[in-house]
Specification:
It is built from ten helices and eleven strands. By secondary structure, the protein is an alpha/beta fold. InterPro entries: SAM-dependent_MTases_sf, SAM_dep_MeTrfase_SAV2177_type.
Amino acid sequence: MITTGWTVCEAVPMNSSEPTPGEFRDRLQTDRPHSARVWNYLLGGKDNYPVDSAVGEAILATFPEFVAVARLQRQFLARAVRFLVRDAGIRQFLDIGTGLPTADNTHELAQRLAPESRIVYVDNDPLVLRHAEALLTSSREGACAYVDADVRDPERILAEAAETLDFTRPVALTMLGIMGQISDADRPAELVSTLLAGLPAGSYLALSDGTNTNEALTKAVEGYNGQSANTYHLRSPQEIASYFAGLDLVEPGVVPTSSWRPEGEDTGTDAPHVSVAGIALKK
């Protein structure tokens, strides 16, 4: 989709060759639910498969408030980007765990306020990549790129992102819902720390993730994990807060997602507090 004044978000060239159609189908794993596609279904999207919608319905049967919780995260993204652009003066974003494109993506939110903003999306799902190439557009003043990489490979992410972002200038690292997909064995806090180490002073971390504080959500996630190729790991609010170690937290700190600087929009007050969010500055 190309509109006047906008250019297509491009995939950053990879060292490996473009996957063949057969390799692409193999990576899709349409016989197993995938978090990005399940999330898309729960948000009312159509970029999913029957296996994803079936799991989505099972989640809703166990935890009916999940749609409201998902919307809370999208609302937090919007508030976070507005804060980072308007108040913090950020013009560069490294968005890890992009998911399938939806309304008000990071680059749209940022470039609406500052058209010169530059955004790099990172995900390793082939369906996400194809949709990003087709649907994500950038203002002509700014830039938008997509890196096909796993969050468990932070060095590669930084190297690829450097083709679009200027790492001598502050960058906002956004990680919404992605760290729950990382097991303890993969040392999630170290992954965040490594990514931040590659960013200059004046950069920010905006992060939110699901907590293990709600029995119904925990049961729903256990059901999802029993069927999915990529499991999700709920953690305590304290564990999630540890990702911000060594940074200066922006008020109000790490709080329930709906409580991070609400701006008057519907913040899903009827949804239980099952995720926390925060933004912090690297000095």
